[in-house]
Design brief:
Elements (H helix, E strand, L loop, with lengths): L2 E5 L2 E4 L4 E8 L7 E7 L5 E7 L6 E3 L7 E6 L4 E6 L8 E8 L6 E2 L3 E6 L1
Parallel strand pairs: 2-11
Antiparallel strand pairs: 1-3, 3-8, 4-5, 4-9, 5-6, 7-8, 9-10, 9-11
């Protein structure tokens, strides 16, 4: 199992950009599918994006397509979420998740993203 630490959140104006990072400790990082999720106040946690172990396959929630980009650097044990054209409705705590077959999922502690109008 890996330990995950997110960073890069903050306050940004609508239309701005942020880049989130999720650093993983532990072995075999490239064996994990990595994902980003978010949870807005009073709402459930929702899927944002995911990337496979090699980094050559990605998936996005519909509302994030074209605005968000997930990527990973297996040499640095890090996954990124580049967020462009941010909207106030993107305000949430963003979480990183690591998943691997036959292993429990790992979650980070989350990083707050606030988009002002």
């Amino acid at each position: 199992q890996v330990q995950l630490v997110e960073s890069g959140g903050g306050l940004v104006q609508a239309g701005g950009s942020l880049r989130l990072s999720c650093a993983a400790s532990g072995r075999h990082f490239s064996n994990y599918v990595m994902g980003w999720f978010r949870q807005a106040p009073g709402k459930g946690r929702e899927f944002v994006a995911a990337i496979n172990g090699k980094g050559d396959s990605t998936d996005y929630a519909g509302s994030m397509k074209g605005r968000f980009t997930i990527s990973r650097d297996n040499d640095k044990n890090t996954v990124y979420l580049q967020m462009n054209s941010l909207k106030p409705e993107d305000t949430a705590v963003y979480y990183c998740k690591a998943a691997r077959w036959a292993s429990p999922d790992s979650w980070g502690q989350g990083t707050q993203v606030t988009v002002s109008s």
